[in-house]
Amino acid sequence: MKAVVQSLVLILALASISACSSWVYRIDIPQGNFLEQKDIDKLRIAMTKEQVKYVLGSPVASNAFDDDTWHYFYAMKGGRGSNFEKQLVIEFKDDKLADIKGDFTKPADFNTPLDI
Hints:
Blueprint: H1 2-20, E1 29-32, H2 37-40, H3 49-56, E2 61-63, E3 66-77, E4 83-93, E5 96-102
Antiparallel strand pairs: 1-3, 2-3, 3-4, 4-5
């Protein structure tokens, strides 16, 4: 009888420990520049590099051999396995904003310079 009770207690203890493992908190790990569409909507053709950096922040990666292309990248690795990624590539010509590409919608008035 004593062995049966000990076995039952052991089984209940193991079951409760395994149930707790699903309750372990796993943190989300963000990396890169978090950008929103409202930030992208502020971009206009012919903006200077300083103006773009003021609006979006410094790029995650830039090419040492081509300073006219900036890469903005954001990744969120969720603690429960939900992953999220977005990227934006900014292209300059003669130190002025020429084009944007990536996972964001180009603003409707992107082709209207700020000077007008």
